[in-house]
Amino acid sequence: xxxxxxxxxxxxxxxxxxxxxxxxxxxxxxxxxxxxxxxxxxxxxxxxxxxxxxxxxxxxxxxxxxxxxxxxxxxxxxxxxxxxxxxxxxxxxxxxxxxxxxxxxxxxxxxxxxxxxxxxxxxxxxxxxxxxxxxxxxxxxxxxxxxxxxxxxxxxxxxxxxxxxxxxxxxxxxxxxxxxxxxxxxxxxxxxxxxxxxxxxxxxxxxxxxxxxxxxxxxxxxxxxxxxxxxxxxxxxxxxxxxxxxxxxxxxxxxxxxxxxxxxxxxxxxx
Length: 271
Fold this sequence. Notes:
By secondary structure, this protein is of the alpha+beta class. The protein folds into 3 domains: 2-99, Helix Hairpins (Orthogonal Bundle); 118-166, SH3 type barrels (Roll), CATH 2.30.30; 172-267, 2-Layer Sandwich (Alpha-Beta Plaits), CATH 3.30.70.100. The chain is built from 7 helices and 11 strands. The chain has a 5-stranded antiparallel sheet with strand order 4-3-2-1-5. The chain has a 4-stranded antiparallel sheet with strand order 8-9-7-11, covered by helices on one side. A hairpin with a 5-residue loop joins strand 3 and strand 4 (151-155).
């Protein structure tokens, strides 16, 4: 009986031994090759200055995909039919994809934003009717900090699926302030006073040159646009300073505000 068991064991070893050894070699060599490929992908993406979040994700995903292929190859070497495994994996992938449609769209949008960089951390943007400073750009969501210090978490599909207004991407911005004056006032005098206000503000750029002109005529007032260029970081300070100085003009009685307008000072663009 023992001899028959030993004989049968020898036959099995002779029959499957080489296949087992070959399968183990496939696993070992495949794992080694997958690590090399992952390292190459990381190096290439680092050289092209891709975001670190995306580098880690893509490298890990490629490693898992390669290892799945290696395991299937090792099972095939052992004589195990892998067709059914592939079919099961495919069906499972389809089911997961359908169940996570929203998450996958957020993921795809996140990858595109990380690659193409329409905005960066620290910049002030407006997206989907919401504005704030970008705090984090992640695979599925983007986090903003609103001017009143609220944390806003937006799904990336909504960020990438609409218009993105980036107020911080350019080094300079145009301040567009409109002021309403009385028809009885002399336009040349008003223009001269407004120019003095601009000349007295050191934050206003000399080039491009600021512009002053009539923006609109209403029944009770003349609306004059004051449009200086400033550094992006100085935008809010300069806009507020101009409005304050114009208010002082009214208080000094050098010019008179129109009686029919409820709002005589306003900033056309908000950031």
